[in-house]
Amino acid sequence: xxxxxxxxxxxxxxxxxxxxxxxxxxxxxxxxxxxxxxxxxxxxxxxxxxxxxxxxxxxxxxxxxxxxxxxxxxxxxxxxxxxxxxxxxxxxxxxxxxxxxxxxxxxxxxxxxxxxxxxxxxxxxxxxxxxxxxxxxxxxxxxxxxxxxxxxxxxxxxxxxxxxxxxxxxxxxxxxxxxxxxxxxxxxxxxxxxxxxxxxxxxxxxxxxxxxxxxxxxxxxxxxxxxxxxxxxxxxxxxxxxxxxxxxxxxxxxx
Length: 255
What we know:
Blueprint: E1 2-11, H1 15-27, E2 32-35, H2 42-51, E3 56-61, H3 91-104, E4 111-114, H4 122-134, E5 139-140, H5 149-157, E6 165-167, H6 177-185, E7 190-196, H7 203-206, H8 214-223, H9 226-235, E8 237-240, H10 242-254
Parallel strand pairs: 1-2, 1-7, 1-8, 2-3, 3-4, 4-5, 6-7
Helix pairs in contact: 1-2, 1-8, 3-4, 4-5, 6-9
């Protein structure tokens, strides 16, 4: 069987991103999103999430490029590799504050991932595993192949659940309808998480510090395309979420 989780990163980044994510869920194939607790429109996002309980919510842990909750006067490093030299940031404390902020507004996350794939770094993977265990979050995004060998071992040894496959990294910023159709038709057997970045390219996003602007609207169009839905149906792909997979796992354990 081929199971597919379609997860939108950056929920909470800007209002136009938030609204694009909800549209991709309402009219398209998006099944889940990961929320940025330190995003500029975090509150807008969590209120939208309450109106759409069918959207599975995880936490997009941010250690790169935004403001830290633990030190609001300072920016986080521009890339994950900056974390190797930043001796002033207590990574686990920062992640803990982000989790607490989400929990305080009623979010019950089912999965974790990191902005810019920061948990490729073993020290970040250890902190993420610790947070997942402390807050009973079963799923963590599978690190990128090859680059994430040691991070994957750390997460596995810590008991974190991961999908069999992860897709979307190479397509970031260039995922259009033909590419998404191709990707769906070539999915392997098992459970795959597809990372996407949909959104509307409004004024707020246009002014934001990100390279993903017009590409987000292109991804939104792809995620809501009838051609993509047809490819899913013809390929026998079953759309799912971390929440659904966890429920199935508990039922099997009970049996």
